[in-house]
Every structure is written in C-alpha cells, then in structure tokens.
Amino acid sequence: MDKIIVDLGSRSYPIYFGYDNLGDLGRVSKELDIGDEIIIVTNPTVGKHFLHTVQAGLKDAGFSVSPIEIPDGEEYKSLSQVSILYDKLLSLKTDRKSALVALGGGVVGDITGFVAATFMRGIPFIQVPTTLLAQVDSSVGGKTGVNHPKGKNLIGAFYQPKLVLIDINTLTRLERPELISGFAEVIKYGIIRDPELFQNLGDNLEKILGLDRESVLTVVKRCCSIKARVVEEDEKESGMRAILNFGHTVGHAIEALSGYKTYKHGEAVAMGMVAATNLSVKMGICNEDVLYRIKTLIRRAGLPTELPDYSKYEYQRVMALDKKMGNNKIKFVVTEDVGNVRFTYLSVEEISNQLT
Ligand code: NAD
Ligand code: GLY
Tell me, which fold does domain 2-173 have in CATH? Predict the structure, then answer.
C-alpha cells in the first residue's frame, strides 16, 4: 500500500492508501504500540458493507475484536451518544492499551476520536474513513468532537489517530450526493494550495466522479498530502491551518440558516467558496477570471454556486456566532488566485454587505 506520513514528532502517523485494502488493517495495526483488544465503532449503513472484512483482517492478525454500532446521522454526534459509548467500552472491560477503530464517515470519525481522546484520559485510535469527505479531510489532522444544541462541533479535542487507512473502493457504495458533497472539499484543496490539482480536477472530472481507480487514488492522496503539510505547520490552528476553512464562514452560515437540512455540507461550502471569491473580486484581491474558473468547476461538478436568498441581516446574525470570531472581526479566507489564498479580517457587516 502507498503511504504518506503526517510528521508531528511523537504524534506522527501513516496514512495508507489503496483499493480493496480494508483487509490489510490488521497487518498494519500490528506495527503499532497497542494492545490486543480492538473495538470497531461504525454505524449500520457502513457496517453492513465493510465490518466483516475489517473484523476478519484484524482477527487474522491476532487481535480480539468487538464491534459497536451507533445510529447513522449527524444528530448522533452528541454528548449523549458519547456517554453511551463510554458505557459500552466499560462493559467490554476496555483498558488504556485497547484501540478504537472508526469505520465510517466524518460523523463516526469525529465521535470515535473524541471518545478515544477522553476515555481513561486517552486511548489509541485508528481512522478508516469511508466517505470522500472523511478520506480527504476529517480523518486526517486530529480534530475530534461532537455537536452541542447551541452549535456544531462546539465540544472537542485535538487528538491525532495512530494510523489512517483509506480504501477508495469503499466510495463505490456511497450515494452520489455524498460523493459530490465530498468533492467540494477536494476542489477546496486546489484553490487554497494547488493549481495543478485544480487543473487536474477540471481535466479529469468525469473520470474522478465516475470513480476511476487511478484518478481517484491520485486525487485523494494529493488532498491528504496537502492537509498533512498544513497540519504539520499548525497542528492546533493557531494561525495558518485556518486556510482549510476557505468557503466555510459563509458555508456554515447557510447551513445554520437552513436548519442543517436543506444543503449537504459540501454544497454549502461550494456556495461559500464562490461567495468568498466573489467578495475577493469586489475587494480588488483577485480578478474575474479566477472567479469564472472556480465557479465553472463547481457548477460542472454538480454543486450549487448561487447563494440562497437570505437577507444580509440573517447572514449577520448567524455569522456573529462563528467560533472563529475575535475582536468583532472574522478571520476570513480570501482568494488571490487559484492555488493561493490569504486571510483578511472582516466584520460580519462587511461580509454580508458583499453577499446580498
Ligand atoms: P457522514 O459521516 O454522516 O456520512 C454520510 C452518509 O454516508 C452517512 O449516512 C453514512 O452512514 C454513509 N456512508 C459512509 N460511508 C459510506 C459508504 N462507503 N457507502 C455508503 N454509505 C456510506 O458524513 P461525512 O460527510 O462523511 O462527514 C460529515 C461530518 O464530518 C460532520 O459531522 C462534520 O462536522 C465532520 N467533519 C469533520 C472534520 C474534521 O476535521 N474532524 C472535517 C470536516 C467535516
Ligand atoms: N477541516 C478543517 C481542519 O481540519 O482544520
């Protein structure tokens, strides 16, 4: 299997990439300093396709394996579900050397990582992401957490996995809207750091979204490598890591205003990336051609480009709750060019005036 390393000193870890490689998890986990007990956390949607293979590979490598299922859905990324997981781990007599495996999308990954970070003050965990979003974004970098009734991801910890294993064959089971939504984050990497990736996405769009094996592997690997480099530079988001939030200020506002129901995360981010670039044009930071290229790729991918019709006061109200806000200004990621973004500090009024 191909691999890249996320280099974080004593918290470094490999990301393995392959096709149909879920069964190899046991073998590569044997190289870790963990005990013989593994608890796989998954949900019924993912478990029915992949649990058997992952479990068999781990058992063959000599691990004793217990699966736990949590219900499928963002609403279960909650403290009450965390508490249920703690109870189950205690009843399995889990100790500090036991490892958790998160088998699923970003929801399973985030909650499992948070449980691993906090159970007995921290036990090892492994990410096996099965959505495109989780493969290129949430499984790498150590952001773990759950939602609070007052907002998404408000409770959490930075806690790195011991290993990430990506099997791009899992994407063939994914519903198409989930694949397209994850693709918005792929486009994001091109815009923030990699004009060649952006070009490749445009040139090979049909092959990538058609899940051509080599094309997808190349793209997923490239995204993980960009994310790894960003996280290595700024693990705890004290500065530069926030470029990964490109498109997310407006995206989160749209998700909040629509009650998290109308749009998938990637769709909201897609509109947010167009809005951020549009604002960059209006501020004289980038030219119309850049906006045209970004909008065209997003539209071709089947993602929305036009903002929903909320008033500027509605945008202001929800953006004022942004947890990245300080001194009444939001650290906003603007586009200079494809492959090049930077920060600027804007009030919610300045942002919303440009949106509507
Ligand atoms: P998700 O985990 O809800 O998965 C989407 C749907 O696809 C679910 O119904 C899931 O059961 C199903 N699924 C997963 N893999 C499948 C497969 N291979 N085949 C068929 N169905 C499959 O959503 P997501 O988009 O993966 O993740 C969203 C979550 O990730 C959000 O909670 C978000 O906050 C979080 N997130 C975290 C980070 C981070 O850095 N930690 C980054 C981005 C997003
Ligand atoms: N998904 C944004 C980050 O990991 O920082």
Answer: Rossmann fold (3.40.50)
- Contact criterion met (CB below 8 Å) for 6 and 231: yes
Stated as kind and residue range, the H or E segment containing 58 is: helix 44-60
pLDDT in tens, 187-229: 999 999 999 999 999 999 999 999 999 999 999 999 999 999 9
pLDDT at 324: 67
- Does the pLDDT at position 286 exceed 70? yes
CATH architecture of residue range(s) 176-352: Up-down Bundle (1.20)
Q: What is the pTM of this model?
A: 0.97
Residues framing ligand 2 (Cβ under 6 A): 137, 141, 143, 237, 241, 244
Residue spans per domain, the chain:
2-173, 176-352
Ligand 1 atom closest to Cα of 145?
A: 41
Question: Which are the contacts of 316, defined by CB distance < 8 A and separation ≥ 6?
Answer: 348, 349, 352
